[in-house]
Design goal:
Oligomer: single chain
Mean pLDDT: 90
Helix content: 25-40%
Number of strands: 10
Shape: globular
Low-confidence stretches: none
Largest sheet: 5 strands, antiparallel
Order of helices and strands: HEHEHEEEEEHEEHE
Strand content: 25-35%
Length: 166
Amino acid sequence: MSLVNLSHLCSHLQNASKARLGLTSFPHSNLHLSLLHSLQRSGFISTVTLGGPTPPPPSPLLSHPRDPEGSVITQTNRASRRLWVGLKYWNNEPVLSKMGMVSKPTRRIWMDVEELRDVAKGVRSGYIEGLRGVGECLFVSTDRGIMEVRECVERGVGGMVLCRVL
């Protein structure tokens, strides 16, 4: 797991939403894809589409996200695969206003269920401040995939805290 690439994704999403972009892209990786799907489930972004170096046509962005026809990933086209992300805005303000890494490559932060429960309640636990704001989310990498902290508490799993989104 490359936390350096994940920090690039966080800063790129934050900068793209502040610049009022409707569509942005990232290099394809399974870590990026699972975090972007978690952000989409939480309502911070509108669409995630797998594509090539050029933007996909508007129709796949407006419908259910799926792999375009004839786009099999091979060794020759692996480097050119991109994840195209549609950003969300509400009342002319970005839904994703701030996004930052919690774990860093030099200091990875692991938490069990009890510590995550405290954070979800709004109480500081270790290095992590509790969730205080409306719509604030904390994403955790578990053995069952990347989940939001409240979902981790419901399922009773801990993991490495990745990023915080406001």
